[in-house]
Design brief:
Length: 442
């Protein structure tokens, strides 16, 4: 996997090299923190590569646990109460955090709350397991359709087996089926077949091939004065009567980036982890490498690329480069990355039919304005602040924006922030020798 076989380096020399490059980058580094992190990363390990923290009841890959901030645990458990599927007599689940939310020690400004849930369904046949999943997801969607502090945004369930046209957009066969909340409630959606004929698609159509299963909400955290997007990606398996484990989407996901929040789900995790491919790490790194290529060559988003490069380097023994990228997430531009993410959240929270507490939405906009004032200057600051003030006026009733105007403001603001984030992360990554060599190799 390239980078795993490294020349033996004196730990102090490694730290000194990191500090020297960090000074060149203009990035502040806590030498004690870096030393402790490198020591933990290079510590000799025996036995399984996942571990349980019995004191707080979480578990996951040993490398991933190093980046989790236990002070955030109760907050994420509260949000998990909204998004996670329940255990049933024939359904076992294990809920976990993933993405930047699972890396609170280094990512002080995480964007969304991404969850990942393993769902194991015991059933006589695959068809029966798919119908159990369909009911489970729809029941969850209806139970959390809307509330004083959450709104359901979207559900992905099923795979199109033919091309269709929906809302004027052509969707290709084998694409995931995206359900709007009102379509989930109705249990059907209206589309056009390729020949233009109307087609009413029932919810159960998703049972043919559940595919990529995911549920999204926007949640208002009134005590923190902010709104956040929360998603739950489902990795669903069917357990046959003779104990065979069959992934319903054909692939059992590895566990290199999850923090599992409930110790009582260890038996399920232990059972499923035995079936993860021996080549899982290699395949995971290849997958992340493909995403880095996408976010640097096709759809530039160097913030996302940096996060994926950090995971690649820390999992493949390239600790110096990982340590340097790790420090980038503590810089002001990382806060700007959060502004970018929260603009999408505001887009969801500002929908006309939203039931979220609007006072919390206003507080979120105020916080974004403060962040922009601190981080930017000149025309970019002026344009972004004026855009956010328009959104604030709409939420408070001072002025009424049409849906088109709201969308235009969000899109324009996102592009402004996107440019600034890309400039920062691209420049810093290219200044780290090993990161630059990696990007040039793509």
């Amino acid at each position: 996997m390239g980078g795993e076989e490294q020349r033996a380096v004196n730990p102090q020399e490694e730290v000194e090299r990191i500090m020297r490059i960090a000074r060149t980058l203009g990035v502040e580094v806590d030498e004690t923190d870096v030393t402790q992190w490198l020591t933990a990363m290079t510590a000799e390990q025996t036995g399984a590569d996942w571990t349980l923290d019995e004191d707080i009841g979480i578990y996951g890959h040993r490398v991933t646990l190093l980046d989790f901030d236990p002070d955030t645990l109760e907050r994420y458990r509260r949000i998990a109460d909204i998004v996670q599927l329940p255990d049933l007599p024939n359904v076992e689940t294990a809920i976990s955090l993933s993405g930047s939310a699972a890396q609170g020690r280094i990512q002080r400004y995480p964007g969304d709350c991404d969850y990942f849930e393993r769902v194991n369904i015991k059933a006589a046949t695959r068809e029966e397991a798919c119908h159990v999943l369909a009911k489970l997801m729809r029941d969850k969607a209806l139970a959390t359709y809307e509330g004083p502090n959450y709104d359901l945004i979207e559900v992905k369930f099923g795979t199109w087996k033919t091309d269709v046209v929906k809302g004027g957009q052509r969707i290709k066969a084998e694409s995931p089926i995206s359900w709007e909340p009102e379509e989930v409630k109705a249990g059907r959606m209206e589309v056009l077949r390729p020949d233009g004929q109307p087609w009413t698609v029932e919810w159960e159509y998703g049972c043919l091939d559940p595919g990529w299963c995911k549920m999204d909400w926007v949640i208002a955290e009134q005590e923190r004065g902010r709104v956040v997007n929360a998603s739950n990606m489902l990795d669903v398996t069917w357990e046959t009567p003779d104990g065979e484990i069959v992934p319903l989407d054909g692939f059992l996901d590895p566990y290199f980036q999850e923090i599992y929040l409930e110790a009582e789900s260890v038996p399920l995790f232990a059972k499923l982890s035995q079936h993860v491919s021996p080549q899982a790490l290699t395949e995971y790194v290849e997958q992340l490498t493909g995403q880095v290529r996408k976010y640097t060559k096709e759809h530039p988003n160097y913030g996302k690329a940096a996060k994926r490069m950090y995971n690649i380097f820390r999992l493949t023994g390239r600790h110096q480069a990982a340590a340097l990228i790790r420090e980038l997430f503590d810089e002001p531009a990382a806060l700007l990355y959060q502004v970018w993410s929260l603009l999408d959240t505001l887009d969801d929270a500002g929908q006309p039919d939203s039931t979220l507490d609007q006072g919390t939405v206003v507080q979120q906009i105020d916080a974004l304005i403060r962040d922009v004032v601190v981080l930017l200057e000149g025309p970019q600051e002026t344009d972004l602040v004026m855009a956010l003030l328009k959104l604030r006026d709409d939420v408070t009733g001072v002025r009424d924006l049409t849906s088109e105007e709201w969308g235009t403001v969000i899109t324009g603001s996102r592009e402004e922030v996107e440019d600034q984030v890309n400039l920062f992360f691209r420049a810093k990554l290219l200044a780290i020798p090993e990161a630059a060599a990696f990007l040039n190799s793509l």
